[in-house]
Amino acid sequence: MVKILHKYLLKEFIASFGFGLVIFSAILLLDQIFQFVDLFLSKGVSFFLILQLFILIIPNILSLTIPMAILFGALLSYGRFAEDNEITVMKATGISYKTLSMPLIVFVAGISIGLVWFNHYLSPSTHQYFRTLYKKILTEAPLAKFSEKTITSIGDYKIYAHEVNSKNNTLTGVNIYKFEKLENKDEGRKTDHIPWRIAASYGTIGVDKGAVILTLYDGYWQRTDPNEYGSMIHMNFGTYKFTIPISSQIDFSDTAIRELNSHKLREKIKTAPNDFERNTLANEYWLRWGVAVAPIVFVLIAIPVGIMAGKGGKAIGFGMSLGVIFTYYLFLVISLNVGEKGYVPSWCIMWLPDFVLLIVGILLFRKMLKK
Questions:
Q1: Which residue from 13, 14, 24, 120 could staple onto 65, CB 3.0 to 4.6 Å apart?
Q2: What integer pLDDT is reported at residue 190 of this predicted model?
Q3: Are 176 and 157 in contact (CB under 8 A)?
Q4: If you ran DSSP here, which 8-state letter would residue 19 be given?
Q5: pLDDT tens for residues 133-158?
């Protein structure tokens, strides 16, 4: 009888969990999907490469959405049990709250153990593959980086194109800007930033040996005269070939930490050159632990709230899931900022969101047992 009940409870939870996982993942993937569709339809990137990018980004999304979906699934399933008076019937037959709770807690604890490995090793690995593939797309299909009527940065250069045609690799209404550093000892200033600009009616674009090669037509090159401020050097051209190194200019510095597995992350922490970098690395390391443990904390809140919900349990479950998720990630943002500034060690402050919600869960469980 108890085994049948456990199977029933888990079956209902898994259905709600799966629904929540699809919804939350779709929301977080929405922006990426639009970018992938644009790469495929407008930039000429092959469908196979787009599919690879999509598959590689999913693990990074799941590390965030699995805890959300567990909370949502537990609140929704136990809320439905309460709304349909199934909890009352189970209690009337002598089934304890412990019997109702333990199968889900054990099941979610297993997911958390899996998330430890997932967050520390699988997710960084897929993130690295994603970056490598995306960099390959940008170097082999440079127009993938360009959008019409948008300023695109490649290294020190700012490039604007009025129209972009991926079919024949052409840009129309091209403007290229750069601020060149120039030593100026005569004026008593260490460095002046000399602006220059290239404008062309149209141009073609290609890649050769890790560099973007722009062949520009019917335009001019213009620069401030460094020897006479207020004057311009102006040169017209019919054809002008302009080369920009790209392989080393694609900036992925903001994502590099996410690509390190936790073993490499610990090594980086030991050799970090300054406190800020050390704190940032430590935040990432302990964040992976905190997010992995979050499902257990979430389920400790979800079970008593769902059971005590009564009528309207499903609606309460949905609303509570959003509230708990917002609270958790609010504390997470606070923890990241405090840890980054070094006010509190990362190994301590990064557990704050889990600790706060754990206290809430324990109090709710005690209230449920007294009911």
A1: 24
A2: 46
A3: yes
A4: H
A5: 877 776 666 555 667 777 777 767 88
Largest CA distance in the chain: 94
Residue 283 confidence (pLDDT): 93
Cα distance between residue 27 and residue 30, in whole Å: 5
Structure tokens at 65: 């959405």
211-224 β-sheet, strand order: 151-154, 157-165, 170-184, 189-207, 211-224, 232-245
From residue 351, give the alpha-carbon distance in Å to each of 78, 169, 265, 346: 27, 50, 18, 8
Burial class for 54, CB neighbours closer than 10 Å (0-12, 13-18, 19+) = middle
Exposure class string for 332-347: b at 16+ Cβ within 10 A, else e = beebbebbbeeeeebe
pLDDT in tens, 307-335: 877 666 566 667 777 888 889 999 999 99
Q: What is the DSSP letter of 120?
A: I
* Local structure of 289: helix, strand or coil: helix
Residue-by-residue DSSP string for 180-210: EEEEETTTTEEEEEEEEEEEEEEEEEEE-SS
The backbone torsions φ and ψ at residue 156, rounded to the nearest 5 degrees and listed phi first, read -90, 0
CA–CA distance, 142 with 140 (Å, rounded to integer): 6
Q: Which residue has the tokens 């610990």?
A: 266
Structural contact between residues 30 and 36, judged by C-beta atoms closer than 8 angstroms: no
Read off the amino acid at residue 109: A
Per-residue pLDDT of 244-294, as tens digits, reads 776 544 444 444 788 889 999 999 898 888 888 899 999 999 999 999 999
The residues pairing with 212 across neighbouring beta strands, listed in sequence order, are 207, 244
Query: Average pLDDT, stretch 43-52?
Result: 80
Helix, strand, or coil here: 166? Answer: coil
Across all residues in the chain, what is the average pLDDT?
A: 82
